[in-house]
Amino acid sequence: MAKSDADRTTIDLFENEKRPGRPKTNPLPREMQLKVNKRNQMKRDRARGLKRIEFKVSSELYQALSDMAEAQNLSRSALIETILQEKLAINR
Fold it and tell me: Average pLDDT, whole number, for the chain?
């Protein structure tokens, strides 16, 4: 049986042929990769003694915090921590 270059249904004939694109480097599906990465990040944070706080703010406040953090070359999280520390030091 002859091999036709247009025939892509018989995969076994083309198993040695290189395909374009980046090779798969992780055996897990993307959804599982994200869960594993998040779990590892939480473990690293816990090891560093960090605690997670979540709250909702308006989009205007969010943008103002983002702009201020960028201007100070900080992450938004570091900026919020600094603001909270300053506020708590004033009230003590």
Answer: 84
Backbone angles phi, psi at 74, to 5 degrees: -125, 165
What DSSP letter does each residue of 20-85 carry, written as one string?
Answer: SSPPP--SS-HHHHHHHHHHHHHHHHHHTT---------HHHHHHHHHHHHHTT--HHHHHHHHHH
Question: Residues 23-32: what's their mean pLDDT?
Answer: 84
Structure-token match 């076994």, residue found: 12
75 φψ region: left (φ > 0), alpha (ψ -120 to 50), beta (else)? beta
End-to-end CA distance of the chain: 86
